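Onboarding guide, step 5: your first structure request.
Type a short instruction followed by the sequence, for example:

Predict the 3D structure of this protein.
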Amino acid sequence: MDIPEDDYDSFLQRLFTRRLKIPSIFGAILNRRETTGRFRAYSAALAAGADGRVVGRYDKQYLLAFGEYLPFGETFPILYRWSPNSGRLTPGTSVAPVPLNVIR
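The system replies with structure tokens like these:
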């Protein structure tokens, strides 16, 4: 499922977090559209409060080679045609803790 990065909080509230009514942590793939028109995808861990609002996010930094990205895939794009099931995820950069209520 394509989850746009600029609207993921309200999108996920409509989808399921508001109905849970408990604090939760879950994973999602978020997509960001660059000014060039290219998309970047991030494997994110998201924390939602009891009201359903997303209160924290962590983007995975160390991606799994050949599953979440192809080594040298950006340099040699033909590799993605040869391995169409490999992901094109972008690694995150922040190491800030994800808050959930009073726990970080």
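Each response can be followed by summary notes, for example: The first helix runs from residue 8 to 20.
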